[in-house]
Predict the 3D structure of the following.
Amino acid sequence: MCGIVGCVMARPAAPLLLDGLKKLEYRGYDSAGIAVSDGGAISVVKRKGRVKGLEDARALKGGTGVGHTRWATHGAPSECNAHPHCFGGICIVHNGIVENAATLKEECVRRGETFSSQTDSEVIAHLIAAEEGDLLTAVRAALQKISGSYAVAVLSERAPDTIVCARRASPLVVGCDGEGSYVASDIPAVAADGRAVYVLGDGEFAVLKKGEPPAFFDGALTPVKKAAIAYDACADTPQKQGFPHFMKKEIAEAPQSAEQSFPDLQSEVYSALCEVLCQTEHIHLVACGTAYHSTLCMYYVTHRFAKMTAQPFIASEYRYMDPIVPRGTLCITVSQSGETADTLASAALAKARGAKLLAVTNVKHSSLERMSDFVLPTHAGREIAVAATKSFCAQLAVLYALSHTIAQCRGHQAPPVSPLFSAMREALAAGEKVRAWVPYFVGARSVFFLGRGADRYAALEGSLKLKEVSYLPSEGYPAGELKHGTLALVDARTPVVALITDPAVADKTMNAVHEVSARGAPVFLITTIPACLGCAEVTACVLLPACEPAYSPMLTALPVQLLAYYVALACGNDPDKPRNLAKAVTVE
């Protein structure tokens, strides 16, 4: 993985390919390349690093081409490992994982073939080149030998002005207009005003030919008709709007994103979902990364107010643990992109075992949306920075609303969620004070985020954000567990961020503050409790507006996100494009 673009048209393809790759930069990548076919002769330009390194390829001739941004899975980031990959007149770009690549490579080597990269993807070009028949038939035959996931776009010297596309467990979309046909791994890279957009289904193929509309086929190569989706390309073109980085802009948008995402409790969709919620006996919460942290927050609120256990699972563990899915289970899956591979596989497993499926996702027409029984979208708008910020708060708004409804279904009362939205705006302004903390974090040996109750889950997310963009070792930890071994790691080079929003356990968390301060650690406090501000052992603090403690991650998320952003800048890092990370993790 990470990003695919392609086009077949009369005018030169290279400028469109480069512009399309730039639209995919938010996904995270380490190398990029394009291939352009001019009458069958294929020219390839690849670079390690950013898309801007491909500008010299803008003058390539030919109206048919493919491009790719790569996030390394097999083989280090390098020019030779960058896509596209070519062999025997075949040129491919690929997202996904070829799980049996080693076995397939051995077969190719026995035929006397050599490989020019360390990637699993290159074997696909070898397999297609070895097949007989037209390009579509050859692609299908080759892909039948592959175990794993793929989204591929294929050029051939023997089929000028043609691209064959296919997908399995990795997204791919096709577009067309009066100028030509287009393919991409993400809708924004292919959509434009007046352009029809089609979502390729799992196991489907598409053929793009010059002068013809795209043709679609099922796994048996039987033609299928597809309906274009409704998509407003003009409304989905985020700009920085004066902010220095998308991450800063998106943190600023968090209050609005949360408020817009709070579901309409009177809508027909939510009313139908309420009927299922009232009949639900078991809830499985399945997600990865930041989305998993949002499910932990729902688990806490549902347990506290609905008196019901909503069990959170990391998706990569759920799909391989042979989960018990009792009768009456609702599986709530959360994914910003709606394309997270482990989450999709877990959702399919839960559904196959009889669970109803509810998706919480930020991307319309995603794979997760299409496979679910119910969808509660987060209306955060497109998130460009790789590190999730506003989408986390939007997910919390949806999940807290669900917990509130579940409590009502079970005859319990939960505090309203809506007062949080104005409090978030206050918290955002107060959170700017963390900028003064930065010198204590730059060069730190490690960082701890501590909390109890809901603060514990906000601490996990704060730690993850700091790791993602500053590259500092960090850990979110239950404040009461620190003395059971981990305190050995604390010294003067270990800043500690303590989150305290629940008066019932404030004194207990302050005990941890005393303990780490006694070992020389600088302590930084984020709290909603004014009485905590007087502690002489605290280096600096931020006071947030009072709120229901169980909902407090919607507030505390903002200063910890800002802290990560400002520390990243001080470390000389690009907070929008952290190294080694991708926005949509479409591989296991």
About this structure: Residues 88 and 129 are 6 Å apart (CA to CA). The radius of gyration is 25 Å. The chain is about 35% helix and 25% strand. The longest helix spans residues 390-409.
